[in-house]
Hints:
Blueprint: E1 8-9, E2 17-30, E3 33-45, E4 50-58, H1 61-73, E5 76-78, E6 90-94, E7 97-103, E8 110-111, H2 114-123, E9 128-134, H3 138-150, H4 155-162, H5 166-171
Parallel strand pairs: 8-9
Antiparallel strand pairs: 1-5, 2-3, 3-4, 4-5, 6-7, 7-9
Amino acid sequence: MKGITTRKIKPSGLELVDKLVGIQRVTKATKGGRSFGFTAIVVVGDENGIGGYGLGKSKEVSEAITKGIDDAKKNLFRFPIIKSTLPHEQDGKFGGARVFLRPASSGTGVIAGGAMRAVLECVGVHDVLAKSKGSSNPHNLVKATFDALHKMRDAHQVARSRGISISKVFNG
């Protein structure tokens, strides 16, 4: 991701909300039979522009979820949110999953599917129109949604990258 500036956030003193996106039972064939385990993908955020995701694996469901939350807290990023919506339209992709995010007017709500809804609600986007195309794999959808959010830029970032004032961004 060249040219995109996202800052990693340390979770000191943040009130984080976590949402379980998906949990899967996985199997390993061993000499003594099958060995079962669980993987959990979790999204955390402060509902005010900060969010991250994590993957946890364990033999127990609750331990996998806890590991996922801990992993997500280590990977927090700040995203631009303007008046509870996004600054502009954006596509994101990861693997076979493709997502499209479009800002919406106030009061629209989060129009998105399961995995995308969890990400957008945790980050703090309240008004958005979202569409997923391609794969519906929750892991890839979460990563594609974060890819789209990482590509978002607000007016301050655009002005800084161009070396001009904010008024020139809007007036040309």
